[in-house]
Amino acid sequence: MRPGAAFFLGLPAWAYPGWAGKYFPAGGSALEHYAQVFNTVEGNTTFYRVPDASTVARWREAVAGAHFRFSFKLPRTVTHNRHPDREDMARFFSVLATLEDKLGPFLVQCPASVGPAELPALGRLLERLPQGYRYALELRHPAFFSRPERVEPLLEHTGAGR
Predict the structure, then answer these.
(1) What is the pTM of this model?
(2) pLDDT by residue (tens digit) across 35-71?
(3) Are the CB atoms for 103 and 69 separated by under 8 Å?
(4) Contact 45/51 with Cβ under 8 angstroms?
(5) Cβ atoms 43, 75 nearer than 8 A
(6) Phi then psi for 145, rounded to 5 degrees?
(7) Among 2, 36, 37, 91, which lies 20 to 30 A Cα-Cα from 8?
(8) Does residue 113 contact residue 78 with C-beta atoms inside 8 Å?
(9) What pLDDT does 85 receive?
(10) What is the spatial distance between Cα 160 and Cα 154, in angstroms, rounded to a whole number?
(11) First-to-last CA distance in the chain?
């Protein structure tokens, strides 16, 4: 990948057991090998648990020198609970902020039950998220596929992407 590429291309994970020795060299850092081919990754692990600072430091070191961006999912305790866990949200952003220029947009994955009627609550969540980052919504309710324009006012108001 050439430095400063105008686009980012990646996968929803940087390591699967079957990839080692087949697509990437066996041994060493799977993320480091991945970052030599792709320049972004969707980080799903953060959906299930906020990583510790030492893990995030290893991730940063693995992509040092690469034109690379992580797009992490917000924890499900923030996106899937009626009352988002603000402590998890604060810890999430505090730990991941150390990635600095390696951060792409954060992914706000909504459960399929979040439909047009929940747009005001989703708007409140987006407004509570820290400024200075980019966010992208992953909507799963069928109503947003049949009439995607329903979410446009929210995206325009919050600056989030799709």
Answers:
(1) 0.90
(2) 999 999 999 999 999 999 999 999 999 999 999 999 9
(3) yes
(4) yes
(5) no
(6) -90, -35
(7) 91
(8) no
(9) 85
(10) 8
(11) 25
Q: How many CB atoms lie within 10 A of CB 141?
A: 18
On the 0-12 / 13-18 / 19+ scale of CB atoms within 10 A, 35 is buried
**What is the structure's pLDDT at 5?**
61
| Cβ atoms of residues 130 and 153 within 8 Å | no
Torsion, CA 109, CA 111, CA 117, CA 121, rounded to 10: -50
The whole-number pLDDT of residue 4 equals 59
Quick one: tokens of 108? 């706000």
> Widest CA span of the chain, in angstroms?
49
Look-up of token digits 């797009």: 71
Closest CA to 107 of 85, 74, 75, 130: 74
Task: Give the pLDDT confidence of 77-94 residue by residue, as tens digits.
Answer: 999 988 888 899 999 999
What does the mean pLDDT of the chain come to?
92
C-alpha angle 55-90-136 in degrees, rounded to nearest 5: 85
3-state DSSP of 52-113 = CHHHHHHHHHHCCCCCCEEEEECCHHHHCCCCCCHHHHHHHHHHHHHHHHHECCEEEECCCC
